[in-house]
Design goal:
- The chain is an alpha/beta fold and 352 residues long.
- It has 2 domains: 223 residues, Alpha-Beta Horseshoe (Leucine-rich repeat, LRR (right-handed beta-alpha superhelix)); 111 residues, Transferase(Phosphotransferase) domain 1 (Transferase(Phosphotransferase), domain 1, Orthogonal Bundle), CATH 1.10.510.10.
- It has 6 helices and 16 strands.
- The protein has a 9-stranded parallel beta sheet with strand order 1-3-5-7-9-11-13-15-16, with no helix packed on it.
- Helix 3 packs antiparallel against helix 5.
- It is found in: Membrane.
- Pfam families: LRR_1, LRR_8.
Length: 352
């Protein structure tokens, strides 16, 4: 494989690969994208990965890799996305990692055994839009330096061991993140933060769509800015987004935090890819059964509901359908289903 010196993209996903990551791959210095997701690869990630000095996308999710993340990865200055979720990786993140990754936009390390502190230097990765570190063993205060990530959109630090600084009973995290004007998702659930909710939480970005601080022992009063939404943005546009996610969860029995949704694959992307012809593959098997009556009509209705859910979850709040239209659309879907069922019953009766 190392002879393929002009190859730029190598993708072998969900192919049943076993054994160690082939060392010959790291001789293909022209590689820009390497994706070996969802195989049965084992062992450590070799230090030779640093030879891929043109690499932009690295995805080794849901394998069985172990050991520390090789330090040579942080020397690949061209890299834009590192995605190593759902392995058995361990060890700490280097204290100066942010200094070496000037082009990093997305960092997915969820579902491993990583520990230690989030380096303060992460703020130097100024292009970072997604920081995804849930289900690890990270400790210490969440660094205030995250406030310097001006392009940050999605921050997930859930299910770790983060705490609130003892000298600041109020959670300064919310105050510092007010500088992240593009932040849309903030998930810090299942951490022993045990702090006071500051009034400054109302100063978080107007683009914020989803906060999950469940099981953190947070105390205090929810300020009016959150309860009612400044200019109505949080109370209407964010509500409709959450409603769309709820519809997807109800019909698929999946959650956005499920392990299969890593890297570029999200619940929204998964649902969108199934439309219009593969909806039966993602819907809960208890809701749609090919052997039951009126199967085709029900599939059509569920497809319409999933299309509505995606309209609720448009990336831009301004592009989302409003709740009045959601209600009207659901009513139309119901009426169309009832009409199809009545027509089928009439046709069956006429044929008897």
């Amino acid at each position: 494989m190392g002879r393929l010196l002009s190859m730029e993209i190598l993708t072998i996903k969900n192919a049943g690969l076993i054994g160690l990551v082939p060392s010959s791959i790291f001789n293909i210095t022209s590689l820009k994208q390497l994706n070996l997701d969802r195989n049965n690869l084992s062992g450590v990630i070799p230090q030779e990965i640093g030879n891929l000095h043109n690499l932009k996308i690295l995805a080794l999710n849901a394998d069985s890799l172990k050991g520390p993340i090789p330090s040579s990865i942080y020397n690949i200055s061209t890299i834009q996305m590192i995605s190593l979720c759902c392995n058995r990786l361990s060890g700490n993140l280097p204290s100066s990692m942010g200094l070496w990754l000037p082009n990093l936009e997305k960092l997915y390390l969820g579902g491993n055994n990583l520990s230690g502190f989030i380096p303060q230097s992460i703020s130097n990765a100024s292009k970072l839009t997604i920081l995804f570190l849930p289900y690890n063993e990270f400790i210490g205060p969440i660094p205030k330096s995250l406030s310097h990530l001006g392009l940050l959109q999605h921050l997930n630090l859930g299910d770790n061991h983060f705490i609130t600084e003892s000298s600041f009973p109020e959670m300064s995290l919310f105050t510092s993140l007010a500088n992240c004007r593009h932040l849309r998702v903030l998930w810090i659930y299942h951490n022993p933060l045990k702090g006071l909710l500051p009034v400054s939480i109302g100063n978080l970005s107007n683009s914020l769509e989803n906060i999950d601080a469940s099981f953190c022992g947070i105390k205090g009063t929810i300020p009016n800015e959150i309860e009612y939404g400044r200019e109505g943005l949080l109370s209407t546009r964010c509500d409709v987004y959450s409603y769309g996610i709820m519809l997807m969860e109800t019909f698929t029995r999946m959650k956005p935090t499920d392990e299969m949704f890593t890297g570029e694959m999200s619940l929204k992307h998964w649902v969108n890819e199934s439309l219009p012809n593969a909806i039966i593959q993602i819907v809960d098997a208890n809701l749609l059964r090919p052997e039951e009556k009126h199967f085709s009509a029900k599939v059509q209705s569920v497809s319409s509901v999933m299309e509505l859910a995606l309209d609720c979850c448009a990336e831009s709040p301004q592009e989302r359908i409003n709740m009045n239209d959601v209600e009207a659309t659901l009513r139309k879907i119901r009426l169309k289903l009832l009409a199809n069922l009545e027509a089928a019953a009439a046709a069956a009766a006429a044929g008897e």
